[in-house]
Amino acid sequence: MITLTLKEAPTVPLEAELLSPDTIASLTIDEIRALPVHLGKRRRRVDDFFAVDGAPGDELEIRGDVGRVKWIGHGMTRGLVRIDGHAGMHLGSAMTGGAIEVSGNAGDWLGAEMSGGVIRVRGNAGGQVGAAYRGSLSGMTDGTILIDGSAGLEVGMRMKRGTILVGGPVRDFAGLQMKGGTIVLQSGAELRTGAWMNRGTIISLRPIPLLPTFSYAANYNPTFVRLYAKRLATLGYTLPYDERDGTYQRYTGDAAVPGRGEILVWQPHLM
Amino acid sequence: MTCTLGEVKNRADFIMYWGGNPAECHPRHFTKYTIMQKGKFVPEGRKGRTMVLVDIRETPSAKAADIFLQIRPGKDFEVATTLRALVKGQAVDPALVAETGLTVERLQDIVNRMKRARFGVIFFGMGVSMTRGKHMNSGAILNLTAEMNAFTKFVCMPMRGHGNVTGADVVLRWTTGYPFGIDLSRGYPRFNPGEFSTVDLLVRGDNDAALILGADPGATMPQPGIEHLARIPTIVLDPKVTHTSRLARVHITTAVTGVSAPGTSYRMDEVPLPLRPALASPYPTDEEVIRRIRHAVAAKPAWTPAPSAMMAFA
Amino acid sequence: MLRIAGGTVYDPANGIDGVVTDLCIADGRLVAEADLPAGARTIDASGTIVMPGGVDVHTHVAGGALNFARGLVPENQRVSRKFLHGVDRRAGLGGMTPTTFATGYLYAGMGWTTVNEAAVPILSARHTHEELHDIPIVDKTTLVLMGNNEFVLDLLEAGETERAKDVVAWLVWAAKAYGVKAVNPGGVEAWKWGKNANTLHAPIEGYKTVTPAQIIASLAAVVDDLKLPHPVHLHCNNLGVPGNFATTIETMNVLQGHRAHLAHLQFHAYGGDDWSTMRSESARVAEAFSANKNLTADAGAVLFGDAVTITADGPWQHLLYQLTGRKWGNLDVENETGCGIVPYVYKDRNLVNAVQWAVGLELLLLVDDPWRIFLTTDHPNGGCFWRYPEIIQMLMNAEFRKEQVRTLPDKARQRIVLEDLDREYTLTEVAIITSAGPARSLGLTRKGHLGVGADADVTIYPVNPDHGFLFSYPRYVIKGGAIVVEEGDLRHVTEGREFIVRPACDDAIEDYIRPLFEKVYTMSFANYPVEMERLRRPEVIPCDRR
Asked: 10 Å Cβ neighbour count for C544?
């Protein structure tokens, strides 16, 4: 495992798209130190900002507040990236495999357009989690993103497949123009959840405001939620599903499209 | 789904203003381009047009409206989304619609009028584009307009504010491919609103210098952004000493474009209009100043490696 | 001053068909050997193929419609070729809607040195010229949209053809244009009420007698009377519609005797009754076209992959939007025209796209005379201009072409004739369809050839059996006598010129136009004509053809 310890905080954003297991796996430690990173418009070296230690392989650990370092893990296909601190924008974007763990927060565009792999953030995430870049027709097409804290706007925007789970509250437009996949909102959301969704499932464990273009369909306990809950349990997350505990109110929409997405809102039984 | 203003003047029999107050903010709009004009195909002028005003409060523009729809603040997205559904004959939830301040019946009536129109236009202002939802509010109206074309001719247009913001958009698009929020630090244009747009850069403090031309962020930005501008080297080019000038390192007074400096202004519908200076000015034009700065910068050692050595990605 | 020594020269306009000879250049022109000053640099061109620089007779590279398209597809721009900022060059993006500086670098990099921006509204011509100003290296011409201009339509309805001619002449000069374009005549006007004009001989929406046929015939006559160097450039009615070959052939009849250039003929050569029965009718179109010697055309070939359809044919684009359910942009221009934009992907698995792909190549192979049909993709509608070498490869190599056909779905192969065509283009014929022919059709007498007095726009290709590769990477590109590309690198960025015309016009027509303008437009009449200062290096070409 290679460890990068932040020694010099970048004064402006640092773009470090080469910091991924795929790149470092085949390099010597000196080559890793010499990898280019971009501080604004200036090209610099990794070791201008990080002390580099360890043995090359496909595990990369980064220590320090790298909230200003963008594009870590971009396009990675394997291995592990562990960030002990905050991470910047575009973490794990376009990744197809491997795992990313963040002890702190992550910036906007976490896992944008990814198609495989797992990302876990213990802190908060920004906006556009697993989303499509501007103009692009699809966001993430597979993979799993787990966020313990809160998240920002447009979580899962235009996602096609895959799972996003957010422990804390999310802001507006979660599941915007969703095409498929699942978003689990353990603490609910602000406005316009599921706006213009086509397909896919949003599960909210708290009541959320809905658009007028969503219709109530039924109360029930879907089988797939039970399966999902079992899978999420192995990752340490709880999803209620038992009829004895409550039921899901199912809403379909968005009629504006018209889409056949669903929003399931958990309704615990009153004791 | 848009057009030049003459199409509105000559054809529009249904004109909606949403989230704007043209009577005060675009004072010649009604008389020059829309409801008051006798158009080639609307020779009866005002009588041949229906004007619908959609806003959160009754502004002086309401006096000119045939129908005033007062919606609750922050509900523009919900109303536009509901209209999209109604246009397609889809069901909506009446109770949730009522939370917008309007009823389903009222909105259905509007949809019926829109469908009966020969040529409908929606002008949308900053009440739409700058309130909660932002680009999604604008997107809702754009989509509604596109979908209306299955029934009748329909267009929409943003009500641009401030001098020649359309011109900046047009020129940036042809030179960089993007309208705003552009980054060139990797040697080629990249676009990402929220990452590279001005307010976000300033509030996060992501830049270490600023050159401000034809704008006054020191008056309009959130406080953290203003403080950042004051901290870093900031250069202002403006005919007047602005709020931003007062916290800048350098202020250069330049000639007023259109009065003393020539150029092209792009109207809100992207029609290019020549600016013919009428008065001389003792000050240099913005163009002269930028050229001189650029010349001086070009004389310094290049900071980017030769193009073939650069990696371009994302 | 330059000597290109020992290259194999293809200069079909001067009957030179693969002759090893030297070319001499001085002061931006080809000169006789005796007139080459001492001390000229010599390029050793032995073992290379030397052709006049490419001339793109129909492309969309600048102006309101193209710029609108740029805004619609940021996701394409993200993955486009990047042009990095340098000491002598500007940053930019390639892709389907290249930025202006990149457009010049891309064309020059391929050895194309003159481009014809095929669709300019007068109202935004100033914008087009400003963008052309920012396209380096290549020379430019523009065509101004007239086929749905209400001043002209109203005059035709009133039978005032002489006045219509003066109005057209005045408008061409006001726009500082080079020629006249008509797109879906009558249809774009009808689109302003959400309709179209599908029948050549039916009056158009909002008019009692004027038909698309009348517009076509009248504009062709006007352009001939005004002696514009390039004939009326016509995008026929019913573009893209199965069965439209009949409209195309009828259009040729309507033009009886007058010159015309038929744009992107591929999109107008379909049979069948609907999408499921759509097939190629290139043979019938090619036959009728060949018989009508007053006509030239460009192929408008389709290539599989990404494209952005950008056309003044608004109603067609709305239909495409409804078919694809994806992005759509539209901008109607008061009194004049409009444009519609739909990003699109041509797929070889798609039956319709497969037929389209075949038809473009079929037309190029079935029309025997290369002086009459030219290589284009209606960029970016059918494919990007920087992919022209792929088409050249398929024209020159029948086996390679047939291999591509064999990968198509069987159903598609039954709808086309491409598999049965054995013709292979020679290098001479390639030089004609990419340079000499379009230059002649455009009436640019100093372009498209390498005789003494021609502009020194010369492209030097490596000899390569893989013809697509040959044409993708010229070894040298010379523009106006300056070496702009050398061994694949951009060496020198020059400024191109804009060719314009000033057709004869009764000045009094301005008194007719002004009050009408003030009534239906929304700006001051004084601001309508484009100022000469907006154009970079303008050159007026005389209207004295024929």
From this structure: 8
- Residue C470 in this model has a pLDDT that exceeds 90: no
Closest residue, chain B, to A176 (C-alpha): B136
Count how many domains chain C has: 1
In a domain, C143, yes or no: yes
Nearest chain C CA: its distance from A137 CA (Å): 8
Q: Mean pLDDT throughout A93-105?
A: 98
- How confident is the model over B190-212, as a mean pLDDT? 97
Contact C91 B188 (CB under 8 A): yes
Provide, as residue numbers in chain C, all residues whose Cβ is less than 8 Å from the Cβ of A137: 75, 326
H or E segment and range at residue A112: none
Segment C166-172 mean pLDDT = 98
| CB contact burial B115-125 (16+ within 10 A = b; e otherwise) | eebebbbbbbb
C37 vs C40: CA distance, rounded Å: 6
Band of residue B306 on the pLDDT scale cut at 50, 70, 90 = low
Looking at the complex, does the CB of residue B194 fall below 8 Å from at least one CB of chain A? yes
Strand partners for B17: B53, B123
Q: What is the dihedral of CA C380, C382, C386, C392, to 10 degrees?
A: -160
B88: which chain A residues are within 8 Å (Cβ-Cβ)? 255-256, 258
Q: Where are the domains of chain A?
A: 2-268
Structure tokens at B253: 């007074």
| Cβ separation C84–B302 shorter than 8 A | no
Is C199 contained in some domain? yes
Q: Is B81 on the interface with A (CB under 8 A)?
A: yes
Instruction: Tell me the C-alpha distance between C210 and C156, whole Å.
Output: 7
Q: Is C74's CB within 8 Å of A135's CB?
A: yes
> Dmax of chain A from CA atoms?
63
CA–CA gap between residue C469 and residue B224 (Å, rounded)? 55
- Closest by Cα among C48, C66, C53 to C483: C53
CA distance readout (Å), A184 to A4, C81, C510:
33, 38, 68
Output the CA–CA distances (angstroms, integers) from residue A98 to A107, A183, C350, C475, in the order listed: 19, 21, 36, 44
Q: Which C positions 140-159 lie with beta carbon below 8 A of chain B?
A: 150
Residue C252 falls within a domain, yes or no? yes
Q: Per-residue DSSP letters for A225-238? A: HHHHHHHHHHHT--
| 8-state DSSP, C138 | S
Q: Say if residue A250 is exposed, middle or buried (CB neighbours under 10 Å; 0-12, 13-18, 19+).
A: middle
- The pLDDT, as a whole number, for residue B307 is 54
| Paired tokens of C44 | 């050793």
Query: C530: Cβ–Cβ under 8 A, 6 or more apart, which residues?
Result: C125, C126, C129, C174, C175, C176
Nearest to B189 among C87, C91, C332 (CB): C91
Largest Cα–Cα distance in chain C? 69
Residue C202 to residue C212: CA distance in whole angstroms: 7
Of the candidates A234, A208, A153, A145, which has an alpha carbon nearest to the alpha carbon of residue A181? A145
User: Looking at residues B243-262, what average pLDDT do you find?
Assistant: 96
Using CA atoms, how far residue B110 sits from B53, B61, B147, C95, in Å, is: 11, 19, 15, 42
DSSP A41: T
Chain A residues lying within 8 Å of B186, measured CB to CB: 15, 38, 41
Domain of residue C83: give its range: 53-449
Are B96 and A211 a contacting pair at CB < 8 A? yes
* Closest residue to C193, CB basis, from B153, B298, B306: B153
Q: What is the DSSP letter of C359?
A: H
For chain B, which chains pass the contact test of at least 3 CB pairs under 8 Å? A, C
Among all residues of chain B, which has the CA nearest to that of C62?
Answer: B174
**Does residue B252 carry a pLDDT above 50?**
yes
The verdict on a CB contact (< 8 Å) between B207 and A191 is no
